[in-house]
Amino acid sequence: MAYTIPVCIATTGILIGWALAALPFDRSGEFNAWLFRFWARSILTITRVRVRLRGVEHIDLSRRYICVANHSSLIDIPVLVASLPLRLCFVAKEELFRIPVFGAYLRRMRHIPVARSNSRAAAKSMADAARAIAAGMRSVLLFPEGTRQVEGLGEFKEGAALLAIRSGVPLLPLAIDGTKRIWPARSVVISPGVADVFVGEPAVTEGLPSSARADLTGKLRHEIERMLQPC
Predict the structure, then answer these.
(1) What is the pLDDT of residues 73-126, one digit of tens each?
(2) What are φ and ψ of residue 209, in 5° steps?
């Protein structure tokens, strides 16, 4: 189904245009939150991907979370946005915010940039991100592996745990299974299929010292690895 990729790109471009046009009139952000989920569900409809969500009882709808998931496919983002009952924004690499039109959309939708160019810039952007998360009203999604994994579960960077500790927001572990078969990394073909999303128990971070981030990251990776094991 190689034809689906151009259709997905066109759909994304159209909906970004609608989102940017609606921003001056959408003071509450509700319309664009709905549009974001509509985009995700449209992508899944086009690609004929169905999602099974397990463990939703671990989500308290009155709270916000730093959601942490494994990452093996470009379809992971619409799978999570469409299925989770949370209003999500993303922590993304700063370079994405420099892309014309798309970067403007990311900024206006208050997604959070993180610099990776040097240690000083990275430290400042992490501090800014923690303040934005603490002050915000949406849950935040991160992929701690940093990039899509071709095989297995990669090493987790400690940034997600550090952001959670600094902002005092609980970590919500998410395990995604099946998307690697649907749209493998570096492939130009999307196959219809079923994606499973498993929600683990949130990890409380309020009051933890920054030095706990390594231990917290290890526990987070172990929990996601456990949820990915066959039953």
Answers:
(1) 999 999 999 999 998 888 877 888 888 878 888 877 778 787 766 556 666 776
(2) -80, 160
- Extents of the domains making up the chain: 50-228
Residue type, 25: F
Using DSSP's 3-state secondary structure scheme, residue 170 falls into: coil
Weakest mean pLDDT among 109-123, 164-178, 194-208 = 109-123
DSSP state of 203: B
Contact by Cβ (8 Å): 183, 191: yes
CA–centroid distance for 189 within its chain:
22
Question: What are the Cα distances from residue 57, in Å, to 16, 139, 162, 197, 200?
Answer: 32, 16, 26, 13, 9
pLDDT digits (tens, 9 = 90+) for 22-40: 878 887 778 888 899 999 9
CA–CA gap between residue 83 and residue 85 (Å, rounded): 7
Q: Phi then psi for 199, rounded to 5 degrees?
A: -105, 125
Helix (H) or strand (E) holding 217, with range, is helix 213-228
Amino acid present at 178:
G
Task: Note the pLDDT of residue 226.
Answer: 94
Contacts of 221 (CB under 8 A, 6+ apart): 144, 153, 155, 156
Measuring CA to CA, which residue among 202, 190, 205 is closest to residue 7? 190
pLDDT score recorded for residue 21: 87
- Write down the CATH number for the domain with range 50-228: 3.40.1130.10
Q: What is the DSSP letter of 157?
A: P
